Amino acid sequence: KQEVTQIPAALSVPEGENLVLNCSFTDSAIYNLQWFRQDPGKGLTSLLLIQSSQREQTSGRLNASLDKSSGRSTLYIAASQPGDSATYLCAVQTQGGSEKLVFGKGTKLTVNP
Amino acid sequence: EAQVTQNPRYLITVTGKKLTVTCSQNMNHEYMSWYRQDPGLGLRQIYYSMNVEVTDKGDVPEGYKVSRKEKRNFPLILESPSPNQTSLYFCASSFLTGYTEAFFGQGTRLTVV
Fold it and tell me: Which residues of chain B register pLDDT less than 70?
């Protein structure tokens, strides 16, 4: 059974700092890994999608990497801003069966001005 | 604009009163699914559908029903809601290939009293 773990559960940093969020998964039979952002009580906004054959994806100040063999992904946020404060969720889409997304429990990021 | 639309966004109801949460997508996606999000438990899949008239149970299907009569719509039905179904619900859709981004609705916050 696929399990996704995100560390740390919460992170507080000063504005301008570069930071890394971690995600690990137990089963490497995945189609892709997606990073989402969720603001309190709101929906999920997709940030980056990495196919299982890819190593990384970049969008603006965000860079996500994937090491499928070791079951790890990182989300790097450069020059953090208060507007980046949110919960970041990592999800892997599993192969076979329900094709479902299995989510980690998220990292709650606070960027202080 | 590509989107997944859920209605209602907020709902307070009483135990036992049947309700339906609607979900519609405009991207011609084959795959649609419902998740619930609870504190400390994260997002868990309730039901999914791989195409019209094809539905199956996810991880937490008890107390829920779904139907997929049209490709764009995937309603979630609670025949007899109970307080333990108080949660934040998300509908999601994607292509079935497994290598594409999943899109999420804005969520429905349901309270059963």
Answer: 97-98
